[in-house]
């Protein structure tokens, strides 16, 4: 009976935690995207942000060329908030001083033949508490509420870690495949050079033992 009671309590706790997370899924504007950026191309994205909200933009080049890209972020007034060239990855946080549409662009115009795969994570606003009622509690949180908050924060950390590990794994895999391809081409080239040298040595050695003197009759 104790085992069944424990299982039932755990199931109820997971169900309650899931509902709490579901109720708060739209409280923070955020978006993640992985896209391909062709050579000599520039792609821009737009996000409407209210004044006073804190925003964070994180990006990383996963594959392509030297794993670098140009990035520019501008305010609705046209003011450049962030601009850098040939960055592999970076994170930029700012607080909006005006309401409007903010634009951030990724450019691969400096590359003539290599495509890039770019990942970015855009978050607007601070993450609110798990429930709106928690901050208004006049008394201490119950054990279930405290556990739900801790689990919610841990799950957010796990999602962040998994995302970064997937990006690192994808980048490392791309680098390994590119290195393997270069080693293959180098090996084929070396084999051809050795074959040509071997054939040349055979003909040279053969010429040493060939009698080229003319016989007079």
Automatic annotation (TrEMBL):
Keyword Nucleus applies: no
Signal peptide feature range: 1-30
Entry's Gene Ontology cellular component terms: endomembrane system; membrane
Superkingdom of origin organism: Eukaryota
Compartments where found: Endomembrane system; Membrane
SMART domains linked to this entry: EMP24_GP25L
Domain GOLD: 42-124
InterPro entries reported for this sequence: Emp24-like, GOLD_dom, GOLD_dom_sf
Family: Belongs to the EMP24/GP25L family.
Protein name per Swiss-Prot or TrEMBL: GOLD domain-containing protein
Organism: Octopus bimaculoides (California two-spotted octopus)
